# Entry
Amino acid sequence: MGEARIKAGVWVSAALRMGAVDGKPGLVVRKGDPDAGGVLVILHGRTGNVVLSQFRDAEGELAWMRGTGPAPVSDAATDAYVNKQVSYDSDLWVIEFDAADYLPPFEGKIV
# Structure
């Protein structure tokens, strides 16, 4: 069945606290539905950005997909991806972190 589902607003708050502890400051770019919204995470690195998109795998467990591909992309490509996803899902949260290593400050399976 997978792990218990945490409300999106609570998860976002926890992720931001983990970022602060890990030296990867973050902020909310766009607030989504506090209970059931999905999450996009923008990781700002040295040569561009990576956007992670939250989803549930076949077993129902939380996982992350590199929505913008395997390599860092420009700010314009990041904005285009985020805007497209928000047009599909108005409940979507968007958070960002300074992450020179392109790794999020929280644990999660990245596919």
Remarks:
- The longest strand covers residues 49-56.
- The CA atoms of residues 43 and 58 lie 25 Å apart.
- Residues 8-21 form the longest helix (14 residues).
- The mean pLDDT is 93.
